[in-house]
Specification:
mainly alpha; elongated; UPF0114; UPF0114_bac; transmembrane; cell membrane
């Protein structure tokens, strides 16, 4: 049996090591998480004094919209964490976290298929919150509903929902077939 040509072995090693080119992407996502945190804190600092004001500057609807904005940012942050951890572990290298007692149980278990499902679920949730915020503003003094934007918001949200269902169906069908 003959050995592989040296050039083929060298190319395969280069190809395998090229996965480290993804590491700066994950470092950039850490900076994106810091950016989301800054926006979250800025919004929190803006809304908390309004909620605590005795002059009742924040209505219950406004408070709900503020909370939805914070939840939206939180979901985006969670999405970033999932993409960072599972993407790094699936495509670059396993995280060596021996001795870490608070490691989330899903870490190291989310494969590419699971990552897709978590990604689309988060996008659907974020899209739903944006749509809910639009609808909660209806009837608000000084708010004029842009029906074209609202219609497109509904269409885009439904597109995300259908995409999620189709992705889940494809994953389910793939799990039922023999692997090649």
């Amino acid at each position: 049996m003959s050995a592989k040509p040296r050039i083929e072995t060298a190319f395969e090693r280069l190809l395998f090591r090229s996965r480290w080119l993804m590491a700066p992407f994950y470092a950039g996502l850490v900076l994106a998480l810091v950016m989301l945190l800054a926006v979250f804190v800025k919004d929190l600092i803006y809304y908390v004094p309004k909620a605590l004001s005795l002059s009742h500057e924040l209505s219950s609807n406004d408070a709900i919209l503020a909370v939805l904005t914070l939840v939206d940012l939180s979901l985006a942050g969670n999405l970033l964490l999932i993409v960072m951890f599972s993407g790094y572990e699936n495509f670059v290298s396993k995280l060596d976290l021996d001795g870490e007692t608070d490691r989330p149980p899903w870490m190291g278990t989310v494969d590419f298929s699971g990552l897709k499902m978590k990604l689309i679920a988060s996008i659907v949730a974020i899209s739903g919150i944006q749509l809910l915020k639009t609808f909660m503003n209806i009837g608000k003094v000084g708010y004029e509903l842009n029906t074209t934007e609202a219609l497109w918001g509904v269409i885009i949200h439904l597109t995300f929902v259908v995409s999620g269902v189709l992705l889940a169906l494809m994953d389910w069908l793939a799990s039922k077939t023999d692997k090649h």
